[in-house]
Amino acid sequence: MVMSNWIFRKSGKTKRKGDVRDPFDIDYSRIIHSSSFRRLQGKTQILNLGDNDFYRTRLTHSLEVSQIAGGILKSLNHTLETGHEGHAYLPPLSLVQTLGLGHDLGHPPFGHGGEVALNYCMRDHGGFEGNGHTLRLISKLEVFSEENGADLTRRTLLGLLKYPVAYSRLMNANQQPCLSQGPSVVPLIDPLKCVPPKAYLDSEQDVVSWILSPLCDADQQEFTAFFERKGRHSKAMHKSLDCSIMDAADDIAYGVHDLEDAIELGFISEAQFRAVVDEKICSAFLNEHAERYGQKTGNNIFDSLVSGLFGDGAKRKMYISMLVGHFIEAVELIEINRFKEPLLRFRVQIKPGSRDFLNALQELVAQQVIFSPNVQQLEFKGQQMVVKVFEVVASAPQSFLPREHFRNFERSQGDMRVICDYIAEMSDGTLLKTYDRLFSPRMGSIFDHV
Fold first, then answer.
1. pLDDT surpasses 90 at 47
2. How far apart are CA 343 and CA 371, in angstroms?
3. Can you tell me the distance from the alpha carbon of 407 to that of 404, in angstroms, rounded to the nearest whole number?
4. DSSP state, 335?
5. Sign of the C-alpha dihedral computed for residues 191, 373, 105 and 241 taken in this order
6. pLDDT grade, residue 441 (50/70/90)?
7. At the N or C end, where does the chain have fewer CB atoms within 10 A?
8. Residue 180 lies in a domain
9. pLDDT tens figures, 258-273
10. Could you tell me whether strands 331-335 and 346-350 are parallel, antiparallel, or unpaired per DSSP bridges?
11. Under a CB-based contact definition with an 8 Å cutoff, are residues 357 and 90 in contact?
């Protein structure tokens, strides 16, 4: 069911005569053909680019999220009872695929390290958060329209609004980005205090107000609610139906596919897997497997899972596929009765038992890969390069910003957000080349591309 308010574009433009696509097909095309989508091929997912040709980049991750989101949608359409009200509000396939492809567009070079670095650099100018930058990028910076970026439909923008609360409202005043108090010779940013709240940027308030304008006052107030956390930034409470499908797909891709990368490259051993993921935590998967294939539950199925994941490539791929399928089928539609608008009232979640299993897989990847010295040292290096390039460019924008970006800087009357946009759009390789050009003893050439 397509509701007219949700297929509007902020520009007011409608599709040209003879265009047989629906509004969400058009949104899908605009993401696929955007420069920001292409740049994802050069951005880190978890492991650094260039070390190996096996593991995921932001681009391949986004493709997988898009495919999994489509699988969730098909599963819901199949499992929902005939006549269930929720059927009418499930998104079309092109919409959930668009959300999967577009959800990471705003993430900067060098992954989380780059995000933390830019949040420090923008500490006095509204901060930086990757999901918030996604909204800015698609609503203002892409070039499909003069003033509205990719000019996507309102419903697509609602789906990409992962955290519907402004940065300034969620920011804990005691967690202001700052330099670490430890080292006395090398200035280092505090990695904990520089983590941003998960939010949209205040600079995009006009866009968010437009997205939420069809909602009644009560729905708007509830949808933008948040809860406070002691010693941390506050956290948004809600997501739209479409966003929740994309978010579940993102979690599945992170928990399962990043696990596959880590096992393949030797970052996780069988012993480490068993220490975090035991038979009890994955009982939902084991029970489903036993019922489907007529086997008795017990250690034999669990051992088969573990030996399959740590066996040869073909067997591992089979179990990875089975895990993805299990989590897709574990997604269920729920109803939040506090909302009048169906796109907010309905939401999906991964069933509790399967959610616990997926959480364990994500925790394993975090412990053994993300927070490992191998990754943290390179993330730190990327973080330092981002800060240095930002500060050099900010010191003399006319000298260091490419002409087009400097014109934007002048039009904005010196808004530092324009410099942040310039850095955030870079791939890992472009940031590295820019750093090398500015700081390497090698002289370089005036003919090098800037």
1. no
2. 37
3. 5
4. E
5. negative
6. confident
7. N
8. no
9. 899 889 888 999 999 9
10. antiparallel
11. no
CA pair distance 137, 105, nearest whole angstrom: 8
| Spatial contact of 187 and 249, defined as CB atoms under 8 Å apart | no
Asked, for residue 304, whether it belongs to a domain, the answer is: yes
Single out the residue of 332, 292, 320 nearest to residue 72, CA to CA. 332
The CA distances from residue 410 to 203, 312, 380, 414, 425, in Å, are: 17, 57, 32, 6, 19
Lookup: tokens for 94: 């092109």
**Spatial contact of 61 and 253, defined as CB atoms under 8 Å apart:** yes
Radius of gyration, CA atoms only, the chain: 23
| SS3 at position 348 | strand
Span 156-160, mean pLDDT?
Answer: 98
Please name the amino acid found at residue 326: H
Burial of 145 (0-12, 13-18, 19+ CB in 10 A): middle
pTM, 2 dp: 0.93
Question: By C-alpha distance, which of 168, 170, 175, 171 is closest to 193?
Answer: 175
User: Which residues have C-beta within 8 Å of that of residue 434, sequence separation ≥ 6?
Assistant: 389, 426, 450
The neighbour count for residue 302, using CB atoms within 10 Å, is 20
Distance CA 160, CA 154 (A): 10
Q: How far apart are CA 421 and CA 355, in angstroms?
A: 36
Contact 128, 122 (CB under 8 A): yes
Distance of CA 227 to the CA centre of its chain: 21
Written as six digits, the tokens of 256 are 């399962």
Distance CA 237, CA 262 (A): 31
Distance CA 349, CA 335 (A): 10
Task: Indicate the pLDDT class of residue 450, thresholds 50, 70 and 90.
Answer: low
- Sequence-distant (6+) residues with CB within 8 A of 73 are 90, 91, 93, 96, 245
Query: Structural domain tally of the chain?
Result: 1
Residue 194 lies in a domain: no
Going by pLDDT thresholds of 50, 70 and 90, the confidence category of residue 146 is confident
Asked whether residue 171 is assigned to any structural domain, the reply reads: no
